[in-house]
Each structure stands twice: as C-alpha cells, then as structure tokens.
Automatic annotation (TrEMBL):
Isomerase as UniProt keyword: yes
NCBIfam families given in the database record: HAD-SF-IIB
Cell compartment(s), UniProt: Cytoplasm
Family: Belongs to the eukaryotic PMM family.
Reaction catalysis annotation: alpha-D-mannose 1-phosphate = D-mannose 6-phosphate
One of the Pfam families matching this protein, by short name: PMM
Protein name, as recorded: Phosphomannomutase
Role this protein plays: Involved in the synthesis of the GDP-mannose and dolichol-phosphate-mannose required for a number of critical mannosyl transfer reactions.
Entry's transmembrane regions: none
Keyword field contains Cytoplasm: yes
Keywords linked to the UniProt accession: Cytoplasm, Isomerase, Magnesium, Metal-binding
EC number: 5.4.2.8
Amino acid sequence: MSGKKILCLFDVDGTLTKPRNNITPEFEQFLQTQLKPICSIALVGGSDFKKISEQMNLNTNRNKYDYIFSENGLVWFKNGIEQESQNIQQFMGEDKLQKFINFALGYLSKIVLPVKRGTFVEFRTGLINICPIGRSCSQEERDAFEKYDKEHKIRAKMIEELEKEFPDLGLTFSIGGQISFDVFPTGWDKTFCLRYLENEGFDEIHFFGDKTDKGGNDYEIFSDSRTIGHSVINPEDTQRQLQKLFHLK
C-alpha cells in the first residue's frame, strides 16, 4: 500500500465502540498514534453528531478525525468544520411525514413486549429512528430486547408492515444496533457519504462495519464498488484486522 492515499472509513456502533458505549482509551490511542500517521480516518454513523461525539470523545476536539459523517453523511464535518446538511422533512413534506409517524405509533401501541419504555420515534435531520422498546430503556433491558428480537423478529415484522403501507414514499428501512431501525429516503444510507469522498483523491477507501449482512445498516456501503469492505464483529476484531492489514503492532 506504500505511496497510496488511503482512507479508513469506520462505522461507530459495534465497530469502534460497543453498542452505545464510548471508545476505550486504548483503542482511541491506537487509532490516533498508529493508524492516523499512515492514512486518513473517517467516521460514519446513523446517529446524530451529538451521540457520535459522545461515543468518540469529540466534545473538546472535532479535529481528531479527518471526516465525520453523522446521520449517514447528511450532516458532515471535514477537519472539524461543518460542511452542509440535508433534511428529511423537506424531502418528504409534512403531510406524508405525519401519516408515516402516526401509522408507526399506532402499530407500536398494539404490540406487546416484555417491557416498554419511552421515546419510540426519534426524529433526526436525515432519518426517522423507530425503537419498539423505547430508547430510554436501561442497558440490561436493551440487551434483553436484542435477544428477544432475534427470536421474535419484532423489528423485521414492523418493517414489513411499513413497507406494505407506504410502498410509494421512496423509503429504505435499515436495522442497526440492538433496539431500533432507521427509516430514510432511498439512497440516504451510509453510501451517501461517499459522494463527498469521491473528489478527495483517495486511491483506496477501506470501510469497516459490523452490520454488513443484507438488511444491516452497513450492507450498502460495505458492498459498494467504491469501497473495500471489511466485516468485523466488535472493536477488538476491528483493531486486529487493522493490525494485520497495515502491519501494525
């Protein structure tokens, strides 16, 4: 890889951090002292910038990473400076948006889960995040729902109903993390960030993600022809793969 201009592009949740946890000091030091000197680093996540900032310790320094793409790149930063943003409300229009949210809330009101908490629909700049258990659940409840969902397919079944009800809105549904799924205009998945990276002169863009199977929120960018995809299972695996790929200690 000598002489090539390389970018390592990372999913955050499950790839650089445990789900909804912060990056460990040891892994952050590895990225900053061993990886950053040899290639550019970018982050891309479905969460808003505030959440990514908390997880990646960016509150005092947005410039730690060369590019930060929050909400799949709908809000993005280059060298710590915000560039531009897109808005799902303008894309859908208020009437269609409310019909969608009302149907989702009606569906959620009818399903019975082991527990339910609060914040079932979270409106972000570029997507709607739907959480059947509610985002205010504890970590223990989050872990329990993830196991329950694997058996009962709560999220997958809800997505099926939404696709039947709204076939013409041009929306994509993507399951990510432990407890929720994202809804966004088709094409506004993580590949959205690549339009900004295409003109940055990289010879190779290596993407690392943990939800790379079809239906996962890393699948589209993992399989995109513009990236070299690496599937990981957790942050420790990400570090191992980076060490092997770039011959690092």
